Amino acid sequence: MFTGFFYGVVFGILLAGLMLLVQLIPSNSMKTLNDASTAQVLQLLRGMSLAQLVTVALTAGVGEELLFRGWLMQLFTGNVHSCSLQELLLGLCISSLIFGLVHPMSILYIILASVMGIVLGAIYWIFDNLLVSIVTHWIYDAILMVWLVKFYKP
Questions:
Q1: Domain of residue 48, residue span
Q2: pLDDT class for 88, splitting at 50, 70, 90?
Q3: Which residue in 34, 67, 123, 132 has the most C-beta neighbors within 10 A?
Q4: Half-sphere exposure of 70 (CA within 13 A, CB side)
């Protein structure tokens, strides 16, 4: 259990750092995505304490991973470690696309969330441990939420 938690923390930090770097790409699409998603998220989270932000991130990490990787991905694959490669790819792609569609801030954000769903699904499949993807998702969300609410300067 400790190993799964540790890997989740490491991957969450790496993915959040990568996302913060991606936001620095000087393009109109990235600026539009960043402005739209920042405004929407700030409306929801502004004024929350650090503990509240971490709790919201934990709730999203647990709930979304149980739903999208723990249930939906397995709905199409059965046991992700005894399925065929085609079943795995189908389950991974469908669950990731739906994951992206439930994050409809913009078309680009849906695409990025779908890619994140693929990454989280791959983490789940590689480690055969839902805890790793849950903690990864939680830490990723927590870092980005705290950065946005406490440190972001528009």
A1: 2-26+35-151
A2: very high
A3: 132
A4: 13
